Amino acid sequence: MQHPLQITKQEILNRKGKFYLLLPIIVVPFLSLLLWSIGIINNTTTTANQPVAGKGLNLSLPEAKPTDDSN
Predict the structure, then answer these.
(1) Which of residues 13 and 1 earns the better pLDDT score?
(2) Is the overall model pTM greater than 0.70, yes or no?
(3) pLDDT higher than 80, residue 29
(4) Distance between CA 65 and CA 54 in Å, rounded?
(5) Torsion of CA 48, 53, 55, 57, to 10 degrees
(6) DSSP 71
(7) Which of 12, 26, 27, 37 lies in the 20 to 30 Å Cα band around 20?
(8) What does the UniProt keyword field contain (predicted)?
């Protein structure tokens, strides 16, 4: 009779199979972020390098206008 805490070879193979199945899902995002951060992956289109009007924060606020309230 087997000890209840003993792991069979089939269970080990199943765990390895699940690990190797999920490994690309874990590695690919981190690898792509690493390559992007060191500059190997880059968006080299000409439109991406041109400044876009209206992009970013609007730091100029409009003037305050009093309301036409009767009070």
Answers:
(1) 13
(2) no
(3) yes
(4) 24
(5) 150
(6) -
(7) 37
(8) Membrane, Transmembrane, Transmembrane helix
What tokens appear for 60 in the block?
Answer: 């100029």
Dmax over CA atoms of the chain, in Å, equals 92
Residues 6+ apart with CB under 8 A from 32: 41
For residue 69, give Cα distances in angstroms to 63, 64, 65, 66.
18, 15, 12, 8
**Phi, psi (rounded to 5 degrees) for 58:** -90, 105
Task: Please give the single-letter amino acid code of residue 19.
Answer: F
Residues shown for the chain: 71
Per-residue model confidence as pLDDT tens digits over 37-60: 888 877 665 454 555 566 778 788
